[in-house]
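Long-time lurker, first post.

We've been arguing in lab meeting about whether zinc ion would sit comfortably in this protein at all. Half the group thinks yes, half thinks no, and nobody has a model to point at. So I'm putting the question to the forum: if I give you the sequence and the SMILES, can you give me back a predicted structure of the complex? Inputs are below. Any interpretation is welcome too.
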Amino acid sequence: MTNLFDTQLQPAPQQTPASPLIGLKVRLDRPVDREHPCCRNICVIAAGEAPYVGTLLCADCGQHRGWLSRSTAQWIEHIATHFGAPTTPIVVRKTHTYE
Ligand SMILES: [Zn+2]
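Top reply:
Settle the argument with this. Predicted structure of the protein with zinc ion, as tokens:
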């Protein structure tokens, strides 16, 4: 029995997979976060728009705090895989983020 829809059921190639970091909490410690802190400066990583991997939203009030670049995401992933799932938020400093 042939299924004419077989070829259409293949997953689309080159689709960006959801970052494993989405939902992870990080603590921002950039100069701007010291000058203009938002709540506790704890952010949740949410899905971002290209070319960014994710967006940083304040964990307490949901305000947009910055973008997560691919290099920053890789850095966080490296830490998470090297040391295991962090029990305390990873601290993100100036050198890691792009505003
Ligand atoms: Zn806030």
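For your lab meeting: DSSP finds two helices and five strands in the chain. The beta strands are 25-28, 42-47, 54-58, 64-68, 90-92. Whichever side wins, do check it experimentally.
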